[in-house]
Amino acid sequence: MNAETLVLIALLSPGIASLLILLTGRYPNLRESVTIIASIVSFFAIVPLSKEVMKAPVEVTLFHIAPGLDFAFRVDAFGMIFAITSSSLWILVSIYSIGYMRALNEHAQTRFYFSFAVAIFSAFGIAFSKNLLTFYVFYELLTICTYPLVAHEETSEAISGGRRYLAYLLPSGAALLVALAITYWLTGTTDFQAGGFLNGPAEVLRILFIIYLLGFVKAAYMPLHSWLPTAMVAPTPVSALLHAVAVVKAGVFGVIRVIYYVYGPDLASSLNLGAILAVVAGFTMIVANILAIGEDNLKRRIAYSTINQLSFILVGAAMLNPLAFAGAIMHIPFHGYMKITLFLCAGAIAVISGKDRVSQLDGLGRAMPVTFAAFSIGAFGMSGLPPVAGFISKWFIALGTIDANNLIALAAILAASLLDVVYFFPIIKNAFFREPDGQYDERGRLYHLYMVVPLAITALFSVILFLNPDILNVFELARVAVNNVWGGGI
C-alpha cells in the first residue's frame, strides 16, 4: 500500500465513522464498535506512514484553488508526531468513553460519538495540512465540532461554558484568517516550508506574528485562557480530548508551524519573536500553576496544569534552537499520554466514588489503587520527574534554554516544575496515607474496567516512553523534524 493511500485511509477513517455513527445511533453496541474499529484503522495506517515520512514528506493534493493556493496535504515528521498522538489516544478514549457514558447513563450519546469522531478527523487534517489554508479549514472545523461536546450536559453551566468557548475561539479563527490573507499577500503562497518562507518589512512581520498568536488561542496562554477551565463542565472524555488529544495541541502545533515553517528560526530570531513568545509563555507557566494550587475542583486543577504544560512547549519553541525545538515537539505526545492519564483518573474517581474535589480524596487510594497509581505516574511526569516521559522532553527544553543562554527561561521552567509538585503531590499523599473521609458510593462498577484499563495503559505508556522514547517513532520523528528545519542538529 503506497504512502498516499495511507494518508487518505488515516484521514477518512474518522470522517466515514462519523457518518456511520449517525446511521447506527439506535444500536449502541454497533455504534461504539464503529468508533473503536475506525480508531484502530487510523492508527494502523499512521504507524507505517510514519516510516515513509522519515524518508521524505508525503503529498496529496485534492484540488487547486488559485496560484499558490491548494487544498492539499503534506505529511512531514512534525505533523506525524501530532497524528500519532491523536490516533493512539483515540483508541483508548473510545474504550474509556463506553464505560463512562454508560455508567452515568448519559444522554445524547450518538451526538457525543459523532462529534468526537469529527474532532479526530479535524485533528488529522490539521496534522497533515500542506499549507495555512488547509490548516485553517480543519482548525475551524475543530472549534465547531467540539462545541456540542463542551455543552453536552445542556445545563445552564454547560451552556455558559460552551458560549465562552465559542466567544474565545471563533474570533480567534477570524484573526487566523486575517493572518493567512496577509501572508498570502506578502508572499503569494501559504505552503509550509521547513525553515520558513515569509518575507516583508520587519514591523509588518512583527504585527503579523501578534495576529497569528491571537489566532492560536487554543494554545490557552494567558490572559486568553479562561475558556479552558470553564470547559471542564464537559464530560471527562471531552476534557481528555480538549487537553490531550486534539484541541489545545492544535493550538501549540499551530504556533510551532508558524514559527518554524512560515517565519523560520533565522527570521524569527532577527525579529525577536522568540523573546515575545517566551515572555507570554513564561508568565503563563507560573501564574497557571499558582492558580492550580488554590483550585479544589480536581478537573479544573488539572486544567490549569494543562495551561502550564502548553507553555512549556511554547518556551521550547521560543528558544529557536534545535535542542529546545526537539523538546517542544516531543512534549506534544509525552504530555498527551500523561495528561490523558490524569483526566481519565479524575473521571473514574468521579464515576466510581462520586467525588470530584481534591479535598474529598483522602484515603481513596486504598479503595482505588490502580487509578491512583496511574494518577501518581501522570503527576510525576507533569513535574518532569523520572521514570516518566515528561522528564525527557523537559530535559531537552532545559538544555535548549542553556544553549540559548536564556537563564530566565531556565529559571521559569524549573520553578514551574517545582510548583507542579506542590499541587499534585499532596493529592497522592492524602489519597494513600490519610484515613478515608467518610463513605463513598461505588457507582458504575459494571463499567469500571472500561475506564480503569485505558488509564492503566496510558500510565504504562507514559513510563515506556521514558524507557524507549522511540516506541511510537517519536524520537526519530523529532530528529527528522529538527534536521528538516536546520539541516542537522540532534
UniProtKB/TrEMBL annotation:
GO terms for cellular component: plasma membrane. Residues 129-418 form the NADH:quinone oxidoreductase/Mrp antiporter transmembrane domain. It is found in: Cell membrane. The chain crosses the membrane at residues 6-23, 30-49, 77-100, 112-129, 135-153, 165-187, 207-228, 240-263, 275-294, 306-330, 366-386, 406-425, 446-467. It is a multi-pass membrane protein. This is NADH:ubiquinone oxidoreductase subunit 5 (chain L)/Multisubunit Na+/H+ antiporter, MnhA subunit. Residues 69-113 form the NADH-Ubiquinone oxidoreductase (complex I) chain 5 N-terminal domain. The keyword Chloroplast does not apply. Keywords: Cell membrane, Membrane, Transmembrane, Transmembrane helix, Ubiquinone. PANTHER family: NA(+)_H(+) ANTIPORTER SUBUNIT D1 (PTHR42703:SF1), NADH DEHYDROGENASE (PTHR42703). It comes from the Archaea. It comes from Geoglobus ahangari. It holds the Pfam family Proton_antipo_M.
